[in-house]
């Protein structure tokens, strides 16, 4: 079998099933361009009579040249009126010849609004296919995962319905509630401690409590811990901090907390509950300590790695994850969104900063819009590049054409090409496009803001303090306006809390890290006021997440917004401020030399 190129130095595929999966990856990536050509032809053939494609007079053509010359590149805003018609009940073949089965909702914090992504039933098969490739790759690098279980904190969101009666729910809720997940075949390499009933409970407290309880009972069998995002795993650790006395009581008595009222959970937990005084004593002994460093490996001593997304904005959680886990490897396995599942990480044990995802060419038709933040150009369809023609080192915005009817749709993700696996490119996720702070002519995106926070937070290291969460907003009520950054700190030595002057230096360090247009506004134009850091109480960002979930966000897909402007959120943040600090000096800036 053609799996040699996929083998790590650790050895061959773990089993025949893995070998077939790795062979499939090889076949798809070796023939990426031909696969892409076939995918596009199939999409255009089956959707030829849809209202959308008929607008552009393809005349039944399925070739790339006709497609590229006639179909425009679009954004969600372009498609929103059509999508709304489907949501309102129009069942005619507008985007897809196959019936729209449901809408998949965006995270609610990407680009500021919750979007409805149409999908068709067969897309579940494609998602399941990508999931089926993850463990065969992981088994190459981490043998023995069939000897234990995974403690994964997975959650669903209760569904809503559109006016036309279609379900609208996050993509992970759709998957977890599907038969693909609920009736999945037993796989010794992919066994969870959490029962389906706990994962499928829409009450986040009851779900988390039950999953944590099961994970504690099976602490010796747990070989890997995970959540979708790094923030989700940290939320689980915070939950343990707040609820360990009740969890220990349940384990000591073999009973279930009365707060857990879901009948399905109570029924399934009868198979798990048992009186274990020794385990309860251990939990009380460990969790009552002030020092929670390495708490993950103390509670789950056989953990080999953490499976969480720590790329993009999630990278700022790495120091906190290292603190709680003792520096366990952090594995990012796949790249996906509500619109489409894209690809997987073929080197899952790499450092977070080196994570690259190999695009699987069978998932959709992929094009790439060249992106240069230093020389912005008009985004037009004629500039789009095919999957196999991207260039290493360059950045692109991802554009997709899906079986569900999205045509040349701009996803909004900026990716950097890091290499190729066979003929399929590998990408590092850089950021979401156009997530900005702006006071005047300055523009600060998410990646730049994160870099500034990271640089400033280095000043806290000598105080054994780190930034565990942050967000920002452009305060234009002051004259001139200024950036406000909210920090939640993890202070490991309360007797050595950073003094005001240290936090003021952090403000200046952030300003020194921002772009020259910002610094010019501060120094020459006086169009931007001194940057402000507001330190908030511990638990503030957990409250922020709870608020977002109460308004319909998914606990699985929730990401802390890096820029906020919604009044209730800002009021919540400001009500939790412990101290406020301003930059006391001007950042460095000199006029650029021009030829």
From TrEMBL:
<dbReference type="InterPro" id="IPR004993">
    <property type="entry name" value="GH3"/>
</dbReference>
<comment type="similarity">
    <text>Belongs to the IAA-amido conjugating enzyme family.</text>
</comment>
<dbReference type="Pfam" id="PF23571">
    <property type="entry name" value="GH3_M"/>
</dbReference>
<dbReference type="GO" id="GO:0005737">
    <property type="term" value="C:cytoplasm"/>
</dbReference>
<dbReference type="InterPro" id="IPR055377">
    <property type="entry name" value="GH3_M"/>
</dbReference>
<dbReference type="Pfam" id="PF03321">
    <property type="entry name" value="GH3"/>
</dbReference>
<feature type="domain" description="GH3 middle">
    <location>
        <begin position="357"/>
        <end position="432"/>
    </location>
</feature>
<dbReference type="GO" id="GO:0016881">
    <property type="term" value="F:acid-amino acid ligase activity"/>
</dbReference>
<feature type="domain" description="GH3 C-terminal">
    <location>
        <begin position="448"/>
        <end position="566"/>
    </location>
</feature>
<keyword id="KW-0436">Ligase</keyword>
<dbReference type="Pfam" id="PF23572">
    <property type="entry name" value="GH3_C"/>
</dbReference>
<dbReference type="InterPro" id="IPR055378">
    <property type="entry name" value="GH3_C"/>
</dbReference>
<protein>
    <recommendedName>
        <fullName>Indole-3-acetic acid-amido synthetase GH3.1</fullName>
    </recommendedName>
</protein>
């Amino acid at each position: 079998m053609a799996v040699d190129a996929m083998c790590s130095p650790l050895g061959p595929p773990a089993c025949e099933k893995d070998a077939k999966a790795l062979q499939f990856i090889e076949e798809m990536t070796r023939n990426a361009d031909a696969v892409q050509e076939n995918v596009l032809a199939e999409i255009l053939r089956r959707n030829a009579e849809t209202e959308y494609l008929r607008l552009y007079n393809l005349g039944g053509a399925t070739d790339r040249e006709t497609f590229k010359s006639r179909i425009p590149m679009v954004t969600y805003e372009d498609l929103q009126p059509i999508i709304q018609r489907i949501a309102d009940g129009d069942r005619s073949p507008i985007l897809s010849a196959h019936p729209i089965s449901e809408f998949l909702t965006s995270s609610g914090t990407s680009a500021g609004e919750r979007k409805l992504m149409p999908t068709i039933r067969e897309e579940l098969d494609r998602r399941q296919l990508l999931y089926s490739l993850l463990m065969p790759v992981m088994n190459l690098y981490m043998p023995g995962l069939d000897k234990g279980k995974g403690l994964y904190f997975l959650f669903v969101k209760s569904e809503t319905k559109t006016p036309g009666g279609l379900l609208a729910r996050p993509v992970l809720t759709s998957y977890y509630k599907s038969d693909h997940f609920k009736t999945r075949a037993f796989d010794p390499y992919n066994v969870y401690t959490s029962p389906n009933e706990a994962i499928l409970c829409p009450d986040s407290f009851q779900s988390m409590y039950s999953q944590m309880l099961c994970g504690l009972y099976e602490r010796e069998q747990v070989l890997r811990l995970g959540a979708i995002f790094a923030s989700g795993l940290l939320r689980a650790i915070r939950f343990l901090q707040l609820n360990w006395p009740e969890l220990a009581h349940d384990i000591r008595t073999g009973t279930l907390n009365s707060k857990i009222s879901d009948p399905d959970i109570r029924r399934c937990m009868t198979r798990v509950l048992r009186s274990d005084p020794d385990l309860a004593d251990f939990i009380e002994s460990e969790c009552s300590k002030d020092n929670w460093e390495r708490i993950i490996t103390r509670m789950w001593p056989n953990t080999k790695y953490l499976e969480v997304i720590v790329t993009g904005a999630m990278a700022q959680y790495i120091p906190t994850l290292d603190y709680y886990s003792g520096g366990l490897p952090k594995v990012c396995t796949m790249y996906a969104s509500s619109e489409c599942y894209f690809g997987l990480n073929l080197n899952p044990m790499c450092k977070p900063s080196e994570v690259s995802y190999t695009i699987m060419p069978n998932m959709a038709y992929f094009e790439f819009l060249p992106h240069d933040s230093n020389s912005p150009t008009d985004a037009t369809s004629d500039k789009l590049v095919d999957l196999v023609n991207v260039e290493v080192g360059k950045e692109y915005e991802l554009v997709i054409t899906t079986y569900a009817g999205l045509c040349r749709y701009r996803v909004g993700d900026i990716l950097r090409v890091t290499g190729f696996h066979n003929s399929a490119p590998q990408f590092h996720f850089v950021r979401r496009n156009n997530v900005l702070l702006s006071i005047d002519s300055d523009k600060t995106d998410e990646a730049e803001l994160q870099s500034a926070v990271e640089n400033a937070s280095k000043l806290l290291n000598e105080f054994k303090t780190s930034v565990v969460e942050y967000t920002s907003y452009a305060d234009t009520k002051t004259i001139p306006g200024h950036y406000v950054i909210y920090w939640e700190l993890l202070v490991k030595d309360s007797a050595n809390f950073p003094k005001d002057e240290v936090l003021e230096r952090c403000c200046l360090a952030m300003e020194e890290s921002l772009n020259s247009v910002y610094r010019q506004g501060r120094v020459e134009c006086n169009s931007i006021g001194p940057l402000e850091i507001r330190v908030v109480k511990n638990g503030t960002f957990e409250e922020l997440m709870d608020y977002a979930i109460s308004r319909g966000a998914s606990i699985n897909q929730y990401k802390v917004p890096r820029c906020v402007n919604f009044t209730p959120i800002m009021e919540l943040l400001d009500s939790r401020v412990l101290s406020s600090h301003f930059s006391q000096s001007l950042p460095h800036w000199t006029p650029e030399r021009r030829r």
